[in-house]
Write a sequence for this structure.
């Protein structure tokens, strides 16, 4: 009797395993080839590409788990249905418990899967640019040449040229309710447009002049909090030409919903000519801008008076306007 | 208390909390004054430019927040000044704008807004003199800006000398010291485009961006562009 039962169970287990394996391979292959290339956020930058791979990989891992559950359910409904002629009596009571093989394999399989994914996630966060290690006030991961470019950005002689493999420093300044962008390697001009050269390492330096905002360029896979008095750095490498959307992703007041703009990735030559002509066109205003710095002290007084907890209005102070130069972090 | 009594109390208190929260949200987002829509499309012939005249004042002088700064717009049919920041404009048309700036100015938080952007010709005029950028750290500073972020349009409105007898309540008349700023821009296709001032002029509010900066009909509104 016991012998017959165990033969039957092995037989079921083998059937389920074979069905699961075949279906999993088919579905994973279909997903990899048909869905994979369309998984967000696309492949506009190296970090977007890395993110797309991570999403795809996690789906490839999750699909067999889903299929395992469905195959087991389908198998049980079909084979162990009480309506089926000659169906076995279900095993109940103590006989159904303490199956050591089932318990050990359950614990081992789930532990291995979860620990592997935790390791995978951690490694991907630390190594890849744009998220995790490559972001924040002190990124632990920087692309080659980035530290040098960032240091040079604070000096008046900072420059960038096409096809030179130089890191482009772009400062993102958030303000209620619009992002503006400064290009320190082009005389520090400021503009409301975000244009980037292709195949270039970009160092986004994100800060705010008032409340907390968040710079989110979804297709670039770049998202960095914009905090007043803080420079949040995010690196990415542009890969494809095209346009992308920038949104503020931190509720920041009445016009938060309108705090978006579209940017574009253009060829290095096209970027060069855009940057040079904008530098020229904005020269008059650039002369009035404060020297390039990582953060700026906003006019804490507002236009004509400030908010203080005692309710007193404090007059405008010349040292506390946007532009008082801050030391690099 | 009986089970039913306790349940009734809990539900009752819950409804009161929901009502309070709802009231709070509604009173926060409700415009400060019952504004309407100023229609600039009536009688507009295709291809013709539209004249739009507005003024900015240091204190509106009436309504629920008499001390707040505000924009006012001249009703094209009656010529009366109205506190209304939702303007209905014809699509793909040139808007000739005149803004009478009665308020004083200060340095900008971000000098980027000292640059004239997105106007026809990239310039505006200040009392008849053309300008394309204004250094807000000099002179009388910038009082407000007229900025439509989605259109890339922004014009700094240069403040009047604060030692002059600045107009104290709206509507201000041209006998008070003022700067006349004119510029033209082209409306895009139909849509709703928000506009705002980029000078944190909400006196007494956090970062100067609360109060009039966060309330319709004061320092921001909508351009309702229609076909
Ligand atoms: Cu924001
Ligand atoms: Cu204002």
């Amino acid at each position: 009797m016991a012998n017959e039962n165990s033969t039957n169970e092995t037989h079921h287990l083998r059937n389920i395993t074979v069905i699961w394996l075949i279906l999993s391979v088919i579905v994973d292959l279909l997903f990899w080839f048909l869905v994979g290339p369309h998984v967000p956020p696309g492949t506009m930058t190296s970090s977007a590409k890395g993110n797309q791979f991570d999403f795809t990989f996690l789906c490839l891992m999750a699909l067999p788990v889903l299929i395992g559950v469905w195959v087991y359910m389908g198998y049980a409904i079909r084979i162990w249905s009480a309506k089926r002629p000659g169906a076995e009596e279900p095993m109940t009571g103590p006989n159904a418990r303490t199956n050591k093989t089932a318990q050990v394999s359950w614990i081992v399989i789930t532990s291995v899967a979860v620990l592997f994914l935790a390791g995978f996630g951690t490694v991907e966060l630390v190594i890849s640019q744009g998220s995790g290690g490559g972001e924040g006030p002190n990124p632990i991961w920087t692309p080659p040449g980035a530290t040098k470019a960032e240091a040079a950005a604070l000096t008046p002689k900072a420059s960038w040229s096409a096809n030179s493999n130089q890191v482009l420093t772009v400062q993102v300044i958030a303000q209620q309710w619009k992002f503006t962008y400064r290009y320190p390697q082009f005389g520090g001009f400021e503009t409301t447009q975000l244009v980037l050269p292709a195949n270039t390492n970009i160092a986004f330096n994100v800060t705010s002049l008032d409340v907390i905002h968040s710079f989110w360029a979804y297709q670039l896979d770049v998202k960095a909090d914009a905090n007043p008095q803080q420079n949040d750095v995010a690196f990415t490498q542009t890969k494809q030409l095209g346009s992308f959307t920038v949104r503020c992703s931190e509720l920041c007041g009445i016009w938060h919903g309108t705090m978006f703009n579209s940017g574009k990735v253009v060829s290095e030559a096209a970027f060069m000519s855009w940057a040079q002509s904008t530098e020229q066109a904005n020269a008059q205003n650039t002369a009035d801008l404060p020297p390039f710095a990582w953060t700026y002290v906003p006019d804490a007084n507002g236009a004509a008076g400030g908010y203080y907890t005692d309710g007193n209005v404090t007059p405008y102070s010349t040292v506390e306007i946007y532009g008082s130069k801050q030391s690099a972090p | 208390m009986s089970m039913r009594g306790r349940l009734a109390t809990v539900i009752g208190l819950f409804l009161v909390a929901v009502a309070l929260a709802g009231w709070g949200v509604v009173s926060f987002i409700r415009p400060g004054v019952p504004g309407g829509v100023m229609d600039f499309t009536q009688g507009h012939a295709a291809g013709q430019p539209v004249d739009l005249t507005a003024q900015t004042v240091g204190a509106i002088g009436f309504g629920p927040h008499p001390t707040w700064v505000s924009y006012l717009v001249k009703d094209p049919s009656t010529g009366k000044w109205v506190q209304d920041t939702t303007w209905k404009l014809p699509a793909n048309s040139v808007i000739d704008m005149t803004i009478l700036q009665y308020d004083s100015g200060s340095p900008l938080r971000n000098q980027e807004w000292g640059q004239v952007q997105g106007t026809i010709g990239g310039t505006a005029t200040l009392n008849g003199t053309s300008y394309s950028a204004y250094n807000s750290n000099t002179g009388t500073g910038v009082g407000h800006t007229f900025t439509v972020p989605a259109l890339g349009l922004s014009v700094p409105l240069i403040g009047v000398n604060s030692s002059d007898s600045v107009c104290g309540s709206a509507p201000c008349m041209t006998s008070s010291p003022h700067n006349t700023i004119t510029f033209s821009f082209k409306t895009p296709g139909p849509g709703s485009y928000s506009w705002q001032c980029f000078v944190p002029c909400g006196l007494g509010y956090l970062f100067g961006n609360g109060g009039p900066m966060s309330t319709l009909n004061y320092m921001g509104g909508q351009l309702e562009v229609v076909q």
Summary: The mean pLDDT of chain B is 89. The pocket of copper (II) ion (ligand 1) is lined by residues A 174, 177, 213, 248, 250, 252, 256, 259 (CB under 6 Å). Residues 39-226 of chain B form a domain with the Immunoglobulin-like fold (CATH 2.60.40.420). Chain B touches chain A at residues 104-112, 114-115, 117, 132-133, 135-137, 143, 147, 149-150, 152, 154, 194, 196, 198-209, 213-215, 220 (CB under 8 Å).
